[in-house]
Design brief:
By secondary structure, this protein is an alpha/beta fold. The protein is built from 6 helices and 13 strands. The protein has a 7-stranded mixed sheet. Helix 3 links the parallel strand 3 and strand 4. The longest helix is centred in the last third of the chain and has 12 residues. The radius of gyration is 17 Å and the shape is globular. The two termini are about 15 Å apart.
């Protein structure tokens, strides 16, 4: 199993029957998009419980390793545009995202909370064994480089934020879908968990108008095959 930004135990939208990390079963790889708490989430606990590898931007990886959040031996530190093969048959490429990143953690010297380097935020292209490509945009605003992502990687499925405030809202996501990514299928993400994230999948559908892009609004805990 591959997890991206596993925000589970403290997520207000997590179903009761999935709040236990044990319910996930085997976890092979965790991809961290940036350093905010709702995206680091349960990474440290899962790495410890499941022995999963953690792929992460090089600077934040240094922070994780130095502070003991995740042991260096489980970290895969890398950066944008250089594909890695962390699992048999799986290729992961880090791509740009437009947001911010910081890591808030206990300073082992002062035993107080402190802000540490989080490197640059990112998204990921995950190519599966059969060639199916997933673009997880991470937390991002619209940026012109999405056109390159759409043309070069040609994702089969995209996970795009629509909540607004910290990321794209539905109108901006619709612009990216129609004018930059030329998306086939989109799963809206990063909405509805906290009060500022007011954008919705229905608003995205309205903003897309007559676009042929399939918008797939999934519920927490739902499974879907592609």
């Amino acid at each position: 199993m591959i997890l991206i930004a596993p925000f589970i135990t403290k997520n207000p939208k997590t179903p009761d029957n999935l709040e236990s990390l044990e319910a996930l079963g085997k976890v092979d790889l965790i991809l961290v998009t940036h350093g905010h708490g709702d995206h680091i989430g349960d990474t440290a606990a899962l790495a410890k419980k499941k022995g999963a590898k953690v792929a992460i931007n090089a600077d934040m990886g240094r922070t994780f390793g130095t502070l003991g959040i995740v042991p260096y031996k489980q970290l895969i530190r890398f950066n944008k545009s250089g594909p890695i093969k962390p699992l048999d048959g799986i290729t992961v490429t880090m791509v740009r995202a437009e947001q911010s990143s910081e890591v808030v953690n206990i300073d082992p010297d002062s035993n107080k909370k402190r802000v540490f380097r989080g490197g640059e935020p990112c998204g990921y292209i995950v190519e599966l064994e059969n060639g199916f490509k997933i673009y997880h945009a991470g937390d991002t605003g619209v940026f012109a480089g999405m056109k390159f992502i759409g043309e070069y990687y040609q994702p089969d499925l995209e996970l795009l934020p629509v909540g607004g405030h910290f990321t794209m809202d539905p109108a901006h996501a619709a612009y990216a879908i129609k004018n930059l990514l030329n998306s086939k299928r989109v799963i809206p993400i990063h909405y509805g968990t906290f009060p500022p994230l007011i954008g919705t999948p229905d608003e995205l559908k309205q903003a897309l108008g007559s676009s042929r892009t399939e918008v797939i609004a999934m519920q927490p805990g739902e499974k879907r095959n592609f």
